[in-house]
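Record passed on underneath.
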Amino acid sequence: MAVDVVTEIVINRPVGVVAEYVGNPSNAPEWYSNIESVQWQTEPPVAVGSRMDFVAHFLGRRLAYTYEVIELVPQERLVMRTAQGPFPMETSYRWSAEAEGSTRMSLRNRGEPSGFAGVAAPLMAAAMRRANQKDLARLKSVLEAR
């Protein structure tokens, strides 16, 4: 069973500010509660083909995975994909202008879990949705305080 979770928030900061901050994977541990660390395999800044090693904790498990940037449209969208592990996943960010000086950001996680992860897909999707909502609220707080 596929998992496809989309979460959105409006951040009272311009698109350029939000996209620059979120589009830098080194900032992820500051606003994603489950991400412990990010190590670049390629040199920053982010570009199509960039690769980063992430260490995260989710549903009581430590996860280590490598994301590769597969699409980048500055100040519009960033798409990263990982192929290893029991839950190959694609994460995408989209940014669009809202009211003056505000940005609508969407965070999408989708993938095809296998093995036990496949059986637990509905539970994983619900947990992802809750975590993403908290992370986006934290991101909003971080960016609006600047």
